[in-house]
Amino acid sequence: MELHVLRISPAFPFTSITKHSRILSKSHCPISLNFSYIPQFSLKVDSQKRNDAIFDDAAYEAERHRLDAEARKAMAETYERETQDQEDPKAWKWVIRKRIWDLMEAQNIAQFPRPVHHRIPNFLGASVAANKLSELEEFKGAKCVKVNPDTPQKQVRFLTLDGGKKLLTPQPRLRTGFFSVLESSMLSPGTIKEACTSAGVAKYGRPIGLDEKIKVDLIVIGSVAVDPRTGARLGKGEGFAELEYGMLRYMGAIDDSTPVVTSVHDEQLVDDIPVDKLLIHDVPVDIICTPTQVIFTNTSIPKPQGIYWEKLSPEKLSQIRILRQLKSKIEQETGRKFPTGPSEKLPPTAQRRR
């Protein structure tokens, strides 16, 4: 199988190619494509603020909850399907995820929204972990922080804005676009907390496209489980954190040196994530913040170098408009047709939104 890697703009060159020799060697990567020579092109996202018109919070939340319910149902079906096939390379991940979800519910350390299954789980002490994260020198020195849109990282989003930093957050499951940017200067003191919610991001955020010139100093991602010894991490199984990371690398917004931090409960720390079974696009973490401790993993796991097109199913591409635009534009510029991965079943909403 040919492995097509979307390499990054020279604005942020790789700090170490030898570090990634396991991934980029000829035996693993017959064709490694460097698109740094591709002329700049524009992928437009409507940047008109949604709060220019009347924003219907109730309607937005109702639709969001409906789509989330459909997505969780589809992920439950994926869990059943992939765990029944012991040869499936992702089956072991579901075993660990389910163990953590079950444990958090049984010990009542899970917080709203519940049940936490098929979510980045909210947990007791999430705000305390966020406060510890805000004390990191990596956070204090950051001007722009990318934070996932999940509930347990809501306080991280607030501390980012309250600290006068630029907040970059993905639109949930990349449904309606790509990322949104928020800054405290765009908000009144009374709207900062609201801006940390999904509805608030839609209401006050400025949508950006892949042609945006932005530098991200710190990445905060949610996790279901993480190994403090290695930095190996498991998300909820949809792969959006990996796609977001790959697209940020394409933009030149991040590089190997950009710290990746996660905030979790201590019970989400595990010691049985097999590093040798991680996939090429899995994102490791450098720092873990829990309600009781801060752990520097000193991870040696290579970070993804971009978007691995052969890992993306046709259905996933159909779901994410901005990813289709990127793939189509690069194929036009290079005259090369990228492969796609095997088909997968996605939520009905993903099949409708074309």
From TrEMBL:
Residues 331-354 are annotated as: Disordered. This is 5-formyltetrahydrofolate cyclo-ligase-like protein COG0212 isoform X1. Transmembrane segments: none annotated. GO terms for cellular component: cytoplasm. Pfam families: 5-FTHF_cyc-lig. Coiled coil: none annotated. It comes from the Eukaryota. Gene3D superfamilies: NagB/RpiA/CoA transferase-like (3.40.50.10420).
